[in-house]
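The protein record quoted for completeness.
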Amino acid sequence: MNRRDFIKKSVYMAVGLAGGLSLAGCGSSTRTGTSSSQPKAKPTIKVGYLPITDHLTMIAHGQTEFRQFVLEPVKFSGWAELAEALKGGAIQGAFALTPIGMSLRQKAVPVKAVFLGHRNGSVLTAKNVPELAGIEDLRGKTIAIPSKFSTHNILIQKLLTEKGINPNSDVKFIDMSPPEMVNALSTGKIDAFIVAEPFGGQAEMQKVGKVLVLSKDIWHDHICCVLNVQEELIQKNPEAIEELVGGLAQAAKFIDGNPQEAAKLSLKYLGQKQEVIEHVLTNPKGRITFANLVPNLQDFTATQDYLLQFGITKDKIDLVQYIDDRFAKKAFGV
């Protein structure tokens, strides 16, 4: 089985297990045997996410009674599978790393960025040994990143460059699925990783890793994961997207004001221990934030400029056409 077949199989398994292989989308329903006199079944909107704190607003699924559709969260373990599912139409929306969303758009996949999942929220974690006490000690070491097309690749290249370390020759990067990183650190497969929480917090609490720097201190208030939605769904059912973004915005406000309760609600979606999620939501405050989640041109332009500066991509996309901020603006009243 080649990589492409593996990814396709993983996507269909994930979507099939989560959704019973039902079709979903604007105006469609898989319900059969329904008479015309019965109420019309609500369409299902499938939204992909990873079990990371960046996607914690998915608790809106359990908190919100959506009137116009059924929200079906679809959990993935890696970015490649999630991106393939969004590209292939197996899901209608997904929280994806900003560079991945831009890459999809560059490949003419018709998606738009409608909502920021969070700000900040990642961490550079090193093996808990005395030899790795600071950024300078990473020279010659192996560092895991979740994807070449990730905010984390930008963050680590920016940090190393500022410290006088050549990211192209002085360290070794390997791509790794976020849930695998803590184990890889504990077994010595890698010396450090940079990724979304809660894996930094998990390694910290298990005492196999230590925080070298939080991403908020590398690039303050940076964006990372963005809700991408298929353009066709936005065009055919903008009311549903407005309701979806409104529910996610309410969840974001709830997380900021109720971190302990949000950590408790996260179990169903992230599968992490409540104390780990509570730790990364509160220690220190601002480690990850859920405020100011309206997508704006300035943030995306900065991300795109870094992608070009570090050679992660060679071509620009039309960001004005990619960003659709009207739903988030309405949700936050701005």
Summary: The two ends are 50 Å apart (CA to CA). The first strand starts at residue 44 and ends at 49. Residues 208 and 318 are 43 Å apart (CA to CA).
